[in-house]
Amino acid sequence: LSRIGDELYLEPTENGLSLRAVNSSRSAFASFLFAPFFFQRYEAGGPQADAELFRCKVLMKSFLGVFRSLPSLEKTVGKCLILLKPQASRLVVQLHCKYGVTKTHNLAFQECERLQAVFDTQRCASSLRAPARVLAEAVVHFPQTLAEVTLGAGPGGKISLRNYVEDEAERSKMMVTELCLAEDEFQTVAVAPGSCITFCLKEFRGLLAFAEASNLPLTIHYDVPGR
């Protein structure tokens, strides 16, 4: 989430605690749901049973600061208490450590509307599905400083990745890195011939890192540029 946006959106519901983030251009969205059984004890809701669900957002940097140095936290912290105080506009995070030490962090938050990505993947003209490892090994060939990369569908079912060049006339004056992946390297391929999209490589790398660490496949849906 920290690689997506600068703000963390929290929404406690009966189904669990939802953490979401969106980037400044609202082109990248991430959401994680921690089910109630993930916690030793979980309570959600306001003072009234029919009260509207409370939502808020905090600065990502402030929230991550509570959990810095994870190896040390795993050795010293026995349990963590997360408490929302709407009347005080505070998110309280308590770390109960060894020897009776309790560290309390009071983070200021702002109330917000529900953050939800609305996009109908069934209407997309193209889709790809592949193990995250395949795409992670492909993007490693691009420099870390590269801002954007273009994914395109070529002849023979080949999928290409190349660094984005704004003016095609300038391609002869600069170094262009292009990598082609065969159709059999993907689990599913259903792309419109000649289609291509350009997107942020940094955000894509962050998504790949999570998917690869979690051993999850990655599915890409796209229609036309901007969708």
From TrEMBL:
Gene3D superfamilies: 3.70.10.10. InterPro entries: DNA_clamp_sf (IPR046938), Rad9/Ddc1 (IPR007268). It holds the Pfam family Rad9. It comes from the Eukaryota. It catalyses: Exonucleolytic cleavage in the 3'- to 5'-direction to yield nucleoside 5'-phosphates. One of its GO terms (cellular component) is checkpoint clamp complex. Its EC number is 3.1.11.2. Keywords: DNA damage, Exonuclease, Hydrolase, Nuclease, Nucleus, Phosphoprotein. Its main location: nucleus. It is an enzyme of class 3 (hydrolase). GO terms for molecular function: double-stranded DNA 3'-5' DNA exonuclease activity. It is found in: Nucleus. GO terms for biological process: cellular response to ionizing radiation; DNA repair; DNA replication checkpoint signaling; mitotic intra-S DNA damage checkpoint signaling. PANTHER family: CELL CYCLE CHECKPOINT CONTROL PROTEIN RAD9A, DNA REPAIR PROTEIN RAD9. Belongs to the rad9 family. Component of the 9-1-1 cell-cycle checkpoint response complex that plays a major role in DNA repair. The 9-1-1 complex is recruited to DNA lesion upon damage by the RAD17-replication factor C (RFC) clamp loader complex. Acts then as a sliding clamp platform on DNA for several proteins involved in long-patch base excision repair (LP-BER). This is Cell cycle checkpoint control protein RAD9A.
